[in-house]
Amino acid sequence: MRIILYTGKGGVGKTSLSAATALRCAELGYRTVVVSTDPAHSLGDSFDMRIGNELKLLAPNLWGQEIDLLHQMDKYWGRVQSYLNVIFAWRGMDALVAEETSVLPGMEELASLMQITHLAESGEYDVIVIDAAPTGSTLQLLSFPEMARWYIEKIFPFQRKTIQIARPVMKAFSDMPLPGDDVFESIEDLVVVLERTSKLLGDSSVSSMRLVLNPEKMVIKEAQRAYTYLNLYGYAVDAVICNRIFPTELTGGYFDQWTAAQQKNLEFVEEAFQPLPIFRVPMFSQEVMGQEMLRMTAATVFGEALVRGGAGDPTQTFYHGKPQKVYQENGQYVLSLALPMVTKEEVKLHRSVVDELIIHIGNWKRNISLPTGLARLEIAGAKYEGDRLNILFAADDVPAPTPQELQSTRWDTLKARLRGA
Ligand SMILES: Nc1ncnc2c1ncn2[C@@H]1O[C@H](COP(=O)(O)OP(=O)(O)OP(=O)(O)O)[C@@H](O)[C@H]1O
Ligand SMILES: [Mg+2]
């Protein structure tokens, strides 16, 4: 199973490329679904068909869906929301405000993620192509599982066991509504889904992010930032698609300056994003609409050949990089993070009291939850090597972590707490 996600600045060609990729995959015989998570859906326009919130057959082997966020939210969030309503109301918020507030920021993201996970786990598709919203929203989408975990840990610091024991006493002193078993169960459900989603999208053998850009300075800048942040969050980028390149035949006249500037920017893109492969797509003489144009677009990007598992197959992984890895070196443990396109000075790193590393780059930050095996070690240093930030952990005075401990994460800890284990 493969998940391919296209992101980039507004209007660069994400939807066109998602549609072209999906059609090509379907024609190679993969059971393919293409979903749009951008609330401003235009996937239907690319296929010149109406697509709605339900899965729709667009061509043999090809289904499409434009995710309707409100509809998805009702489906997945009802139980948790009713608990939050009670808590907020107890804090003195009136019912109406509570109702509004309990639609926490990011709930739309959650709904999309749940649907993607549902499709991935249904076993009915070989390929899921995601036509994502412009960069900022997509980063929000992809950072949501971890952010939600962090919040759940903070607003929900209860041990299920402790509550069960303390309930009668607490009842006598306070009218704070204590979460019941049903609440623990729904939060646990949610955490389980978030963890699965985060693993699915973070697994580079399943999911590849592709950056779409046009050879224009501002667009490239945004793609560079997206590349850094995707890596920061541990998502593997395997290609860049440079779309809308003016053909060089357009010489003599108005477009001369544009084509010259584009050529220069193209060279810059090649240099900046290496070793990622860069696929070039010209500005066509018409819009990318309807199957014929989509087929042609796919042929330009992936080649004319139609070999399943070989040439012309968009499901290939075009670049094998590991955004995040843990290994042992000279008696120390190394957490290695790919952070391309930033300088050492732009990265701020600190460790919180608990087993987290906090990394700030620009406006984005990630709370990296350390594997339990690393969390109890001291940080011995950090250094920039190539495009990677390597954080060293010393295991001098403590027993060395076991391989399981190097895998185990805070998701496991949180689940155990909610389960009352
Ligand atoms: N290579 C191309 N040649 C000609 N037209 C193109 C090309 N790529 C995209 N287009 C057209 O440009 C417009 C914008 O493309 P598209 O909708 O795919 O971009 P997008 O990144 O999804 O935009 P948004 O951010 O609004 O979702 C569409 O009308 C599309 O048909
Ligand atoms: Mg679009």
Considering the chains and any ligands shown, give keywords for the structure.
single chain; 421 residues; alpha/beta; Rossmann fold; Immunoglobulin-like; 14 helices; 44% helix; binds adenosine-5'-triphosphate; binds magnesium ion
Structure described in brief:
With 421 residues, this protein is α/β, with parallel strands linked by helices.
Please specify the SSE layout and strand pairing.
Blueprint lengths: L1 E6 L6 H14 L4 E5 L6 H5 L8 E4 L2 E5 L2 H22 L4 H7 L5 H15 L5 E5 L3 H21 L4 H14 L7 H22 L4 E7 L3 H16 L4 E9 L10 H18 L4 E5 L7 H13 L21 E6 L2 E7 L8 E5 L4 E6 L2 E6 L2 H4 L2 E8 L2 E7 L8 H5 L2 H10 L2
Parallel strand pairs: 1-5, 1-6, 2-4, 2-5, 6-7, 7-8
Antiparallel strand pairs: 3-4, 9-10, 10-15, 11-12, 12-13, 14-15
How would you portray this structure in words?
This protein is α/β, with parallel strands linked by helices and 421 residues long. It folds into two domains: 1-319, 3-Layer(aba) Sandwich (Rossmann fold), CATH 3.40.50.300; 324-419, Immunoglobulin-like. Helix content is 44%, strand content 22%. The chain is built from 14 helices and 15 strands. The chain has an eight-stranded mixed β-sheet, sandwiched between helices. Helix 9 links the parallel strand 6 (207-213) and strand 7. Helix 6 runs antiparallel to helix 8. It is globular and about 85 Å long. 38% of the residues are buried. Magnesium ion binds at residues 14-15, 38, 42, 131.
Q: What is the CATH class name of the largest domain?
A: Alpha Beta
Percentage of residues in helical conformation? 40-55%
Chemical compounds bound to the protein: adenosine-5'-triphosphate, magnesium ion
What would you call the structural class? alpha/beta
Q: Overall 3D geometry?
A: globular
Beta-strand content bin: 15-25%
From the N-terminal CA to the C-terminal CA, the straight-line distance is 33 Å
User: Segments where pLDDT lies below 50 for 5+ residues?
Assistant: none
Q: Please, what is the CATH homologous superfamily of the largest domain?
A: P-loop containing nucleotide triphosphate hydrolases
Task: State the strand order across the main sheet.
Answer: 3-4-2-5-1-6-7-8
Largest sheet: 8 strands, mixed
Number of strands: 15
